[in-house]
Amino acid sequence: MEEETNFKLGHYPCLAEFDSKALSSHDNTMRTIVDLPKEQIEALDTYAKAKGVSRAAVVREAVATYLPAKKKKIDWRKHPAFGSEKMPKGFDSVEYVRKLRAEWDHRG
User: Fold this and answer.
1) Which residues contact 54 (CB under 8 A, 6 or more apart)?
2) Which end of the chain has fewer surrounding CB within 10 Å, N or C?
3) Single pTM value for the model
4) Which DSSP string corresponds to 51-92?
5) Residue 40 vs residues 31, 45, 48, 56: alpha-carbon distances, Å
6) Distance between the two ends of the chain, CA-based, in angstroms?
7) With the CA atoms of 30, 36, 40 and 42 taken in that order, what torsion angle do they form, in degrees rounded to the nearest 10?
């Protein structure tokens, strides 16, 4: 373990002051440079300090809030009702639907 620590800190003195919490745990992230006015940076820092998170975490939260949510794709095959109605072999579903619709036409 000490050898691993020496590798990280001994060969790279700049890592001694590196805040590991600043790294994202997401594998699909990309570093982005954004120019913001001083007032927005100060507001971000105040908000981040109050929440106990990094400025980057606040920006990620803001972007996630701003962008529309992704619609979750539903896999109906995993739905508990999928395949629950077993039809007999040779069942004509088109004819069955026509029969149901015909019942609607004959309503009083």
Assistant:
1) 19, 21, 22, 48
2) C
3) 0.41
4) HTS-HHHHHHHHHHHHSPPPPPPP-GGGSTTTT-SPPPTT--
5) 19, 9, 12, 13
6) 83
7) 80
DSSP state of 30: -
* 3-class SS of residue 12: coil
Helix or strand (DSSP H, E) at 95: helix 93-105
Cβ atoms of residues 36 and 44 within 8 Å: yes
Are the C-beta atoms of 64 and 58 separated by less than 8 Å?
Answer: no
Q: Which amino acid is at 94?
A: V
Task: Tell me the pLDDT tens digit for each residue of 31-87.
Answer: 889 899 999 999 999 999 999 999 999 999 998 888 887 778 888 778 777 766 677
- Report the C-alpha gap between 39 and 45 in whole angstroms: 10
